[in-house]
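Q: Convert this sequence to structure tokens.
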Amino acid sequence: MSNQYILGIDIGTSGTKTVLFTAGGEPVCAKTVEYPLYQPKNGWAEQEPEDWWNAVREGVSAVIAESGVRNTDIASVGLSGQMHGLVMLDGAGEVLRRSIIWCDQRTAAQCEEMTARIGQKRLIELTANPALTGFTASKILWVQEQEPERYEKCAHILLPKDYIRYKLTGEFATEVSDASGMQLMDVPARTWSGEILDKMHIDRALLAKLYESPEVTGAVHAAAAAETGLAAGAPVVGGAGDNAAAAVGMGVVTAGSAFTSLGSSGVIYAVSDKVAIDPEGRVNSLCASAPGKWTVMSCTQAAGLSLKWFRDNFCQAEIAQAEASGTDSYILLDKLAAAVPIGSEALLYLPYLMGERAPHPDPDCRGVFFGLSAKHGRAQLYRAVLEGVAYSQKECVDVFSEMGVQIGDMLVTGGGGRSALWRQMLADLYGCPIHMVQADEGPALGAAILGAVGAGLYGDLEEACGAVVRRRKVNEPIPENSAAYRGYFELYKSLYRSLRGDFKTLAALGK
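A:
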């Protein structure tokens, strides 16, 4: 095993990260290639699948060349990627339109139509979720209705990472963790739902073959080998959706373990031995990347995005200071926020810049500062943003508990996880210790671990994670802080209920 390597490829929203690891999970070389996001209308979000493939070609070629590793020593390729994106190919395998990606909000009417066709109760029983604008099924329905000439030409429907699999192997394949976010599966049974497909008028032949995440789904073909530098015949495993892969990369593969991811979106992901479904649809239930297990997952649409929005629009002084001193502007802003007491001096923030998914699936809700007064400046506003996102995460953890999904072990990842202040907020609100892992390669590491299991380097995921994943740092909850947050958290929860109707009115006025 000592001279073998594993490759993890993560097709993200802002860029694709390719990382070469040793079989023991040590990163050898990494390359990130960025690409644009297109927003032709308010609430729309699209990307070019060819941009993802170009980023993979460049990234894989770079890590092989820069590492000096022989391509024949790469035991397997693991794939991860942004979930829910719709990729449509014609019979020749050519892309028919830009991918409509996870954060696109155009499909509210199609979600209502899905619910009417299938029935909300039955939809949740089968797919473990209510109809959601972010998920793939409503996007398919939108194309059927708005672009029928394109849909008529469609021969294959894929997810973002599975388009890369097709480019590498020629296989039309997916795996259960990502596919269960399409809203076309019978999630408890871990298979495509004939009932859903019939009522959505989707031909089963359009969909890819389903695998479990560590299973081998194909091998790199000669043309892809020539373009990337990989060895022809290298196995490509199922991989996982970005959050499911991140879970593997942190060792979150057994019941009771969970992580919070603070990236552009904020995600909590917990593993369960059985299917747990919220009948109100406030959080998502999906198949886990660990075979035979399921997950409950929440998604705050604008977590790190809220911080970036605030920094880019209101913190030019800190940005300039960071550039001059060679530091990170977020570190400077954290110092400002740390000097502000809990509650941000009676200021609350609702992080609904992109609508919301959990625990309020509502495309019409919008961001709010509540309690703003003349005494508030950047420091209070920035802390309120941090706290508002943390309150959203706590609200989701409470839903998990209602569903019987207990969390005894919480890790944190994502760019926001580097903030000691934000980690402490989560520990105080969750009431449990928050751990970090030593590696910061996120979904790419999880994809590589899945690849290592698929290649037979480890017997199963638990063995692989035990050998590869190492923890560092912990934030313990501070009881007096937890008590201080309580009243603000209760007020935070009441604000959405108070404003829900007003959000609908605002959306109507803006059309």
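Residues 325 and 420 are 21 Å apart (CA to CA).
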